Amino acid sequence: MTRTLALLLGTAICASGIAAAQAEELNLYSSRHYDTDERLYSDFTDATGITINRIEGNADELIARMEAEGANSPADILLTVDTSRLYRASEMGLLQSIDSDVLEARIPGYLQDDDNQWFGFSQRARIIFYSNERLENPPSTYADLADDAYEGLICIRSSTNTYNQTLLSSIIENQGEEAARAWAQGVVENMARDPQGGDTDQLRGIVSGECDIAVSNTYYFARAIRRPVEGLSEGIDGVGWVFPDQNGSGAHVNLSGGGVAAHAPNRDNAIAFLEYLASDQAQQYFSAGNDEYPAVPGVAISPSVAHLGFFKPDDVDLSAVAQNLGTSQAIFNDVGWE
Ligand code: FE
């Protein structure tokens, strides 16, 4: 049994007496900031005696900070959202490969980096929403979004957004570059307006009548069910949703996740923390905090997410998808997706 597992069971520290001399710590660089996180962290500390020092910021700032700190960085873990950011961090040499039987067993393969530099701990699907008052036949696949039938109806955000970059990268992975280019061109031709705002703004467009179709991550919709989101919650009954490609490759998913920092001073504690994040209770806190789906199969989903229901995810390898990010940016530029 690994030392990290022993730490999780709360035995190593007391047995060795080392902890009394050296405070066990973990330096967490995190772009998370959710209500459930206090329990997430305090339960870990209660179980292991490891104190968590949180350094919070937006993902790009944290990555820049780790790069600037170099080998002297105190970071043990980087926690953030989206494969593209974790991929970038690993390409920059900011993360390290780890061996963990717990993570291998608990986290599905498509949510792990090939080199085990990062792991997904919750997942969100990027799906199709539509006006169930104005549209009788909504798209049922991503390919449908490029169909002439939906000309002038679609609201989707800018190509500078990482979610769209990863979505197009997955289409490249599944269908090849030329099909992906034709798809992007078709979506541009079907846009209801120039891309603007975040995913919530695309959903608001359905409520306001500006868009009949919107592409959004699931959690923005689920959040508006859980608590009032202006311009959306009051009209949410008029918004239907489709998990795309349920008879094909499945709905595109992305992840929230993290990895161990390249120069982690508390490497064992970092691995123990990631293993803890894969436990049933931590999975519930972690996913519920942002109205996401747990990464670990069989873990209970929160009520707002249950409203959306279960779906077949596209289990294409997200590390392979991430390698298409450069190509997807070139395609977006070529087809004039702002
Ligand atoms: Fe988001």
- CA-based shape: globular
Q: Which structural class is indicated by helix and strand composition?
A: alpha/beta
Bound molecules: fe (iii) ion
Cα-atom radius of gyration: 21 Å
> What's the CATH C level of the largest domain?
Alpha Beta
Portion in helices: 40-55%
Proportion in β-strands: 15-25%
**Number of discrete helical segments:** 16
According to CATH, what is the topology of the largest domain?
D-Maltodextrin-Binding Protein, domain 2
Give an overview in words.
- This protein is of the alpha/beta class and 338 residues long.
- It is built from 16 helices and 10 strands.
- Helix 4 links the parallel strand 1 and strand 2.
- Helix 8 crosses helix 9.
- The N terminus is likely disordered.
Name a few traits of the molecule.
42% helix, D-Maltodextrin-Binding Protein, domain 2, 338 residues, alpha/beta, binds fe (iii) ion, disordered N terminus, ten-stranded mixed beta sheet, globular
List the helices and strands and how they pair.
Layout: H1 3-8, H2 12-16, H3 18-21, E1 25-30, H4 37-48, E2 51-56, H5 59-69, E3 77-81, H6 83-91, E4 95-96, H7 101-106, E5 119-131, E6 154-155, H8 162-175, H9 177-189, H10 199-208, E7 213-217, H11 218-226, E8 239-242, E9 253-261, H12 267-277, H13 280-288, E10 293-294, H14 303-308, H15 318-322, H16 325-335
Parallel strand pairs: 1-2, 1-3, 6-7
Antiparallel strand pairs: 3-9, 4-9, 5-7, 5-8, 5-9, 5-10
Helix pairs in contact: 4-13, 8-9, 8-16, 9-16
Bound molecules: fe (iii) ion (FE).
